[in-house]
Amino acid sequence: MTLKALRLLLAGTLATVALWAADVTGKWTYEMPGRDGNTMTGTMNLKADGSKLTGTISGPRGETEISDGKIDGDNVSFNVVREFNGNKMTLNYKGKVEGDTIHFTMKMEGGRMGNGAGREFDAKRSAT
Questions:
Q1: Which of 24, 68, 73, 85 is the most exposed place for a label (fewest CB within 10 A)?
Q2: Does this model's pTM top 0.70?
Q3: Beta bridge partners of 42
């Protein structure tokens, strides 16, 4: 196989993989179990560009940009860095897309939730 043919094959494979990526662009709403049995509600505004994911997540503490967003087939992941009382914390979100639902697990780096299973919740695609 020539180098040119190998490049064409690789480009075709990458284009095909991009087509298989889940379409997560849009507004998503969620409810997540919080402290003391309280439920936290929030919104994600996501934008997919091939395997790159950008957007914001909004909740009781306001709106925050996501970072390191990735899409791999029907798997999505991103981080949210928040500051609380002068301390920064990173929240890692990993999800699996199934139609108009993303099944997420959120873990905090370090801290109480860093070593555990994390919090599980579903985000639903919003009609608006």
A1: 85
A2: yes
A3: 30
CATH of the domain at 37: 2.40.128.120
Domain range holding 27? 3-125
The pLDDT tens digits of the residues spanning 46-79 come to 999 999 999 999 988 789 999 999 999 999 999 9
Q: In the predicted model, is pLDDT for residue 10 greater than 60?
A: no
Report the domain count for the chain.
1
Instruction: Please give the pLDDT value at position 15.
Output: 41
Q: Which residues pair with 14 in a beta bridge?
A: none
Distance of CA 42 to the CA centre of its chain: 14
Take residue 41 and report the two structure tokens written for it: 């509600």
Per the CB < 8 A criterion, the answer to whether 56 and 47 are in contact is no
Q: Which two tokens stand for residue 72?
A: 């791999």
